[in-house]
Write a structure and sequence with these properties.
Number of domains: 1
Largest sheet: 2 strands, parallel
Order of helices and strands: HHHEHHHHEH
Radius of gyration: 18 Å
Low-confidence stretches: 20-57
Mean pLDDT: 80
Distance between the termini: 26 Å
Helix content: 55-70%
Number of strands: 2
Number of helices: 8
Strand order of the largest sheet: 1-2
Length: 142
């Protein structure tokens, strides 16, 4: 699994888990139709049903990251910093990991200019999260 896949899994995973828990919470006396609807929601939330792609588009990246940041003891500026974003997701944020992410995302600039590379990486990650079905505000992608 690549670094971007780890980022995507760390963000989309908690959102899917939350959806799955709410979908499986059908009341004990629910009708067959309601149970079928709950099963459909469960399959969609876990990425196994026919509406799996549309469920992924419902992942609010900003809300997931904001929730993680609220629980974190460090004040991390994930909205502007690729290092802080990776730290928030408990991923390796070292220069070598960021250079590997840059290779993975086809960065064509000078990797020794880490400040420029970091800004590019942050925008690329946000753009790719949006392209992968995440809801990402435009100000984080441009």
């Amino acid at each position: 699994m690549g670094i971007f896949d780890s980022i995507k899994s760390a963000i989309f995973g908690p959102a899917k888990a939350t959806e799955a828990a709410s979908a499986s919470a059908a009341p004990a006396g629910a009708s067959t139709a309601a149970a079928a609807t709950a099963e459909t929601r469960q399959a969609t939330a876990t990425g196994t049903g026919p509406g799996a792609a549309s469920a992924m588009s419902q992942v609010d990246v900003e809300a997931v990251l904001g929730g993680l940041a609220a629980k974190n003891t460090q004040k991390l500026d994930w909205r502007n910093s690729i290092v802080d974003l990776m730290k928030l997701l408990n991923l390796d944020s070292s220069l070598s990991a960021r250079k590997e992410l840059a290779k993975e995302l086809h960065y064509s600039g000078d990797a020794s200019d880490s400040a420029t590379m970091n800004m590019w990486l942050h925008k690329q990650v946000m753009t790719k999260l949006a392209a992968s079905g995440g809801k990402v505000p435009a100000d984080l992608r441009t």
